[in-house]
Amino acid sequence: MPLFQKNHLYFMPEAEKILEHLGSLIKANTIFLASNDLKTNKIIKVLNKAEILVQEGSIPFQDSYCSTVVNNETSATVIKDTALHLKTKNMPPTKTIGPSCFVGFPIKLRNGELFGTLCAMDRNLIFTKEELDLIVTVAKFLGYLIDLERDMYVDQVTGLNTKRFLEMYFEALPAKNKKNISIFLINIDRFKFVNTTEAVGDHLLSAIAERLNNISNNKGLVIRLYGDEFLIVHFGLTTNHERSLYAEQLLETIAKPIQMKYQTLNLSARIGISSYNGDEKTNLDTVIQQATFAMDEITGKRSKRYLLCTENIILKKERHMWIEANLINELEENKFEMYYQPQFGLESNNITGFESLIRWNTEKYGFISPAEFIPIAESTGHIIPLGNWIFSTVCKQMSEWNKLYGTNYSIAINISPAQLNHYGQYVDMLDDILIKYGILPEQLHFEITETSFLHLSDQIVPLLEKIKNKGIHIALDDFGTGYSSVLYLRDLPINIIKIDRVFVKELTINERDKKIIKTLIELARSLRIQVVAEGIEDEVTLHHLKSLGCHSAQGYLLGKPMESVAAEKLLTENLKN
């Protein structure tokens, strides 16, 4: 079905205002605006004053007065008497209304395309030069206006319709035609890596647009959203199986080689799919958003490059969005709290410190794991205010405990790459906080995972050195899970390694894990690096770690993460012993 007529004035109210204003400036009885494609002349807006000379509607182009106008772009075409003029005397309008005076000027777009004509008629009026000049000026202005409006509805690179057009089209679509609509949101993989120049990018986008148009076969509306994202609104699919087959066709079409001037490129894509069944509570933006949800679930690890949106995906994304939107507000309202998991020295059996762990108990979702909200905070930049709150809260707690229990213990704080960069640049801020709360620098441990180093690359060493030089200890968390773990011992200024629970949990049954841990402990000792074992859940494992010379340990056997009140009880008992 034809979804877009190129010769159609989008903003009819604006055209009507312009005609009314023109009518107030010239004396002609009738002013009208027509669009034509040299086959059909369509009068789309008419202003008649005393007498109805013209009405809206379509007639064959060759039978219209406008056919005498389109080739004259230098001045207004003037026919003083349509009943006597050679080209108009036998035309149907002349036979219908009789003689009249007619003037007109073509409306051209910036690409040279003919849009239509602006015309005026009267029974006896002789148009003045000023009136003819005004008609020419307004016709050219209408051309500029239509160009601007078309820019809003037609993408200039691909020739596809824009989302603005889709919104207008969807709003005008009858309710009975809004059932079984399928939305395919298409994102081109790694487009920025092949988009080396504007010319290359435009060529690729145009080639993809042409392919998508061909495959839609007038059963769908192809939209360029922005950048490398396209949208197809399909009207003929009724089942998820049909949608899946169509998505596979789209992917195959996109994957076909694109010949450039000096090379051949092969592109791939991912597609999120949603559907709309005429539900009045669901609007176009919601359906597109659901397709976005599905597309975001497609990662590089998935072999299938399309995904249909499900209720679970929507709930997951809504939860993600809620966390993103409410994290800072909940932080300001003190909805977060710190828990503390004890660490014990394996030689003394006394508490050597705690790992601080943030907890978030929400009214909407209950407890939300840090493994869920920390990555969201990192991606939004909220990790800095969140990290500052953690840092200040822990320091305040440590200050209170120092007064009660002395300073022979430490508290570890997990630090993200963004926080590490932040604190590395503002070392003086660390000094101020330590002085404010009366904390010894060595009481504070910054725990950083191996993946942090991947994000910070060459920046990591000077940042860690700046922090370590203040006396704060650097602990490498999840040690042993990365490929470069041993190199970190050589290259990084760290004080502590924490052996990951993946090695610890099978220490008593897996001889290889036992040898790995033994080697790591011996290596760390030779480098004067402390070793903390995580995930201790039974006495046998604890005994093995003692025998291997491990310095410290933490885990559920020794103590679960607990509120500060419970941690104080442990410290009190530890002080007595």
Automatic annotation (TrEMBL):
GO molecular function ontology, one term from the record: cyclic-guanylate-specific phosphodiesterase activity
CDD domains membership: EAL, GGDEF
Source species of the chain: Lottiidibacillus patelloidae
Gene3D superfamilies: 3.30.450.40, 3.30.70.270, EAL domain
Pfam families tied to this protein: EAL, GAF, GGDEF
Domain EAL, first and last residues per copy: 320-575
SUPFAM superfamilies: EAL domain-like, GAF domain-like, Nucleotide cyclase
PANTHER family according to UniProt: CYCLIC DI-GMP PHOSPHODIESTERASE PDEF, SIGNALING PROTEIN YKOW
Protein name: Uncharacterized protein
Domain named GGDEF: residues: 179-312
